[in-house]
Amino acid sequence: MKLRRARSWFDCSIPVAAVGATIFLCLALNALAQSFPFGSELVLDADPMRGSKKIPVLDIGPNGTAEIELWCNSVKAQLVVATNTITIITGEMSTRQCTPERARADEELLAALNQATNWRMENSALVLTGGATLRFRVQTN
């Protein structure tokens, strides 16, 4: 009787282990497929502001250093990436002569970048989430 129960338990555990291994493999492959775009120049998925063709650009170096061209000003940053989390540490913003509208847009974008906590790749776009959702498209020049 004990042998029959042990065999029954063993027979049930094999499919469970196979499903668990399959799920683990899928998650691992998905993580590898979504590597962070170090060494890329990305453009904010937004329309230019009225009276300009400029759109913010996120230029990420291979080691996580970044230069961020905002709507008017620019800022240097360090990106710390671990699995699907991100921390963006920004430095001091350059000061150019900006319209109040562009200065406000710079501050809002900078705040959203500083609040980003997670990242994912969707097609060819880096999506940052946290306080707001930001989409940056990979440059295709």
Description:
Helices cover 33% and strands 30% of the residues. It has 141 residues and is of the alpha+beta class. It folds into 2 domains: 1-33; 41-138, Lipocalin. The chain has an 8-stranded antiparallel β-sheet, with helices on one face. The chain starts with a helix and ends with a strand.
Secondary structure topology:
Blueprint: H1 2-33, E1 41-44, E2 57-60, E3 65-69, E4 74-82, E5 85-90, H2 100-114, E6 118-122, E7 125-129, E8 134-138
Antiparallel strand pairs: 1-2, 1-8, 2-3, 3-4, 4-5, 6-7, 7-8
Uncertain runs are 16-33
Number of helices: 2
Looking at the structure, the CATH topology of the largest domain is: Lipocalin
Assign the structural class, choosing from mainly alpha, mainly beta, alpha/beta, alpha+beta, or little secondary structure. alpha+beta
Strand line-up of the largest beta sheet: 5-4-3-2-1-8-7-6
Largest sheet: 8 strands, antiparallel
CATH class of the largest domain: Mainly Beta
How many E strands?
8
- The share of residues in extended strands comes to 25-35%
CATH architecture annotation of the largest domain: Beta Barrel
Question: Quick one: overall form?
Answer: globular
Computed over alpha carbons, the radius of gyration is 22 Å
Provide the helix percentage: 25-40%
SSE order, as H and E? HEEEEEHEEE
Average pLDDT, rounded to a whole number, is 83
Distance between the termini: 71 Å
Would you summarize the structure shown here?
The chain is an alpha+beta fold.
Give structural attributes.
141 residues, 2 domains, alpha+beta, 2 helices, 8-stranded antiparallel β-sheet, Lipocalin
